[in-house]
Specification:
The complex is a heterodimer of chains A (520) and B (100).
Chain A: H1 3-13, E1 18-22, E2 25-28, H2 29-45, E3 53-57, H3 62-73, E4 77-80, H4 87-97, E5 101-105, H5 109-115, E6 124-128, E7 150-153, H6 154-159, E8 174-180, E9 188-193, H7 194-208, E10 215-218, H8 225-237, E11 240-243, H9 250-259, E12 264-267, H10 269-276, E13 291-294, H11 301-310, E14 315-320, E15 329-331, E16 345-346, E17 351-355, E18 361-362, E19 367-373, E20 380-381, H12 385-391, E21 392-394, E22 401-411, E23 417-422, E24 427-429, E25 432-434, H13 436-444, E26 449-459, E27 463-472, H14 480-490, E28 499-502
Parallel strand pairs in A: 1-11, 3-4, 3-5, 5-6, 6-7, 10-11, 12-13, 13-14, 27-28
Antiparallel strand pairs in A: 1-2, 8-9, 9-20, 14-15, 15-16, 17-18, 17-19, 19-22, 21-22, 22-23, 24-25, 26-27
Helix pairs in contact in A: 1-2, 1-8, 2-3, 4-5, 7-8
Chain B: H1 15-31, H2 55-69, H3 80-83, H4 86-98
Classes of the chains: A alpha/beta (520), B mainly alpha (100).
């Protein structure tokens, strides 16, 4: 089955069930289906074809959800871009993936206009959420923006009517390209087929035991695999997804959880830390909550205990995964007490093992690189054969490739996994991977910066925070705040340094490389 | 360029009220908008819709308000109605100051 066929199946089975709630509005499955069909027709009229990319650069909302399924309905490859992405990176992503169509929030139009080249690959930009004025209201009208690109409002595209033509697609075709940070500093597009995503979705659904009566509250960005799969899984089950714009106002989210009797809450440690920091948390009646999941970064033991004390009725799943295959392992809630530090064992329908530096399989009890075998493993990185070869290596069967994660784990005698370290120096901040090189490139683009290093330091709220260490050229002086502001203007906020230090020289190893161990 | 004049509601009498918006606008320009201009933040511009602040940004704004105006922001007050535009922040700060 194809990814979007799960939604089509649910539409046939439960057309009247509520599929999505955003703010005060709700949509039934039949209504979502009609929106998808009309947007797909509008995309097809604009020439979107099988295998072409459709970028989704938008806030969480119904338009984003519809845009994802409409792209799939066209046989196209959807490519979510975090709405925090700034101009330069957006330009890079568009140049790399060469999408022909983009769905963009009206509030992000100015960034889109600045990032897009004239007469570039993007033929169409569908603008959602027109009511919100862009920063610097009174900017250029959408239609006057970029030569060679048609700007059309989401509502206008839908009003054109029509239904989409069938497009022959098979499960070996790409469904999505999800970008992730790479140690080289250039974001890498993870290519995922329908089979990859359906396999991951089905395994996760089966161990979480999601049901059609579930009410899933998602405050994670849909540009993030963990958020995206809440929609994919929820719609495959016929459940209802309560989609929040963000987690900026935790009290508001709690009120909605209480009012809507939410049963499933997926979070990351920074969200749980914000929730547990609220003095008023125990006043909310969240008795309907039956499932709490954590992924993207390990939950500190103290937070695990607090969550279990506050929500004794809810099952808490600690999980581990990576964009390259979505999910690897989960810790059954019954095991939390015994092994709170473990991310669990492999999920259904996959094989995992640890390998030594030479790629040899290690016995239980060892420490080594985690290797994954299964139909959920990506097809590789978009247009990056060298990076792909580092991660995908021949597996046990002829022609088969397995994923070498770059994550070092320890495995106990019963097969439970414990995270040890990364092989590279990727930083994990707010559950998102941050490439030190990407941060260093931005730091060095500031006039007067001679040299820069970025490292991760432990942080109670973020997991790891980014620390920047700078050597300035003679005659230059900056405050720490000026450095942070420069970074905020150029990169997603989770990548910007929280700490800044100015030094005369960076420490070096014997081989002349910057010695990052000494900088943390 | 001059800062935009406040629109809509009549201008409150106390000069201090104007300075709440001014101080918050300056804080946002200094900390979150590189190369941004004062006219990018109108009195009713939603910080969240216009991508000026994200979740972490709101936490920083709350710390700034607490430090600058010397009060504690309660859990229940951390809502967009109080924090998601200059005009809302101004009304919120005035309300907090007027509270006994």
């Amino acid at each position: 089955m194809l990814l979007h066929e799960f939604l089509e199946q649910t539409i046939r089975k439960r057309p009247e069930a509520v599929a999505l709630i955003c703010g005060e509005r709700r949509w039934r499955y039949a209504e979502i289906g009609a929106l998808v069909e009309r947007l797909a027709a509008a995309m097809q009229r604009r020439g979107v074809q099988h295998g072409e990319r459709v970028a989704i650069y938008a806030e969480n909302g119904v338009e984003t959800v519809v845009g994802i399924y409409a792209a799939l309905r066209c046989g196209a490859v959807f490519m979510p871009i975090n709405p925090l992405t700034k101009k330069d990176k957006l330009a890079y992503l568009v140049d790399d993936a060469r999408p022909v169509c983009m769905l963009a929030s009206a509030s992000l139009l100015r960034v889109v206009q600045e990032a897009l080249p004239a007469n570039g690959p993007l033929r169409t930009c569908i603008v959602s959420g027109g009511a919100a004025p862009a920063v610097g209201a009174g900017g250029p009208a959408p239609e006057a923006a970029v030569p060679g690109t048609e700007f059309v409002r989401f509502e206008t595209a839908l009003a054109e009517g029509g239904t989409a033509l069938p497009v022959p697609t098979i499960d070996q075709d790409l469904a999505s390209i999800l970008y992730t940070s790479g140690s080289t500093g250039e974001p890498k597009g993870v290519m995922l087929t329908h089979l990859n995503m359906v396999t991951a979705m089905q395994s996760v659904r089966s161990y979480l035991e999601l049901q059609d009566e579930d009410m899933i509250l998602c405050a994670l960005p849909l540009a993030f695999g963990y958020g995206l799969y809440q929609i994919l899984m929820g719609f495959a089950c016929g459940a209802c997804v309560v989609l929040e714009r963000s987690f900026a106002f935790p009290v508001q989210v709690l009120e909605r959880m209480q009012r809507l009797h939410v049963t499933v809450f997926p979070g990351v440690p920074s969200m749980f830390a914000a929730l547990l920091g609220l003095e008023t948390l125990p006043q909310y009646d969240l008795a309907s909550l039956r499932l709490i999941t954590n992924a993207a970064a390990a939950l500190p033991e103290r937070q695990i205990q607090e969550l279990r004390r506050l929500f004794p009725q809810a099952r808490l799943f600690s999980m581990y995964g990576l964009t390259e295959c979505k999910r690897v392992s989960y810790l059954p809630p019954e095991e939390l007490e015994r092994r709170p530090q473990s991310v669990g064992r492999g999920m259904p329908n996959q094989e995992v093992w640890l390998a030594d530096a030479a790629g040899r399989c290690l016995p239980p009890g060892s420490t080594g690189e985690l290797v994954i075998r299964g139909s959920h493993v990506m097809r590789g990185y978009w247009r990056k054969p060298e990076e792909t070869a580092e991660r995908l290596k021949p597996g046990p069967l002829p022609g088969e490739m397995v994923l070498h994660t770059g994550d070092i784990f320890r495995m106990d005698e019963e097969g439970y996994l414990y995270f040890v370290a990364r092989k590279d120096d990727i930083i994990k901040s707010q559950g998102e991977k941050v490439s030190p090189r990407e941060v260093e490139n931005v730091l060095c683009s500031l006039d007067g910066v001679q040299e820069a290093a970025a490292v991760g330091v432990p942080d109670a709220l973020l997991g790891e925070a980014v620390k920047a260490i700078l050597v300035l050229k003679p005659g230059y002086a900056y405050t720490a705040r000026e450095i942070v502001k420069h970074c905020l203007a150029k990169m997603e906020s989770f990548m910007a340094p929280k700490y800044v230090e100015f030094v005369r020289d960076l420490p070096r190893t014997n081989t002349g490389k910057i010695d990052k161990k000494g900088l943390r | 360029m001059n800062a935009p004049a406040s629109k809509g509601t009549p201008r409150p009498g106390a000069a201090d009220d104007g300075s709440i918006k001014h101080r918050v606008r300056t804080y946002l320009l200094d900390n979150f908008l590189m190369g941004g201009a004062a006219e990018d933040i109108q009195d009713d511009t939603s910080f969240i819709d216009s991508q000026i602040l994200d979740s972490t940004g709101f936490l920083e704004l709350i710390s700034f308000l607490e430090e600058t105006f010397g009060f504690h922001v309660e859990d229940a007050e951390m809502v967009p109605e109080n924090l998601d535009s200059l005009r809302r922040v101004e009304a919120f700060v005035q309300g907090k100051r007027a509270a006994p």
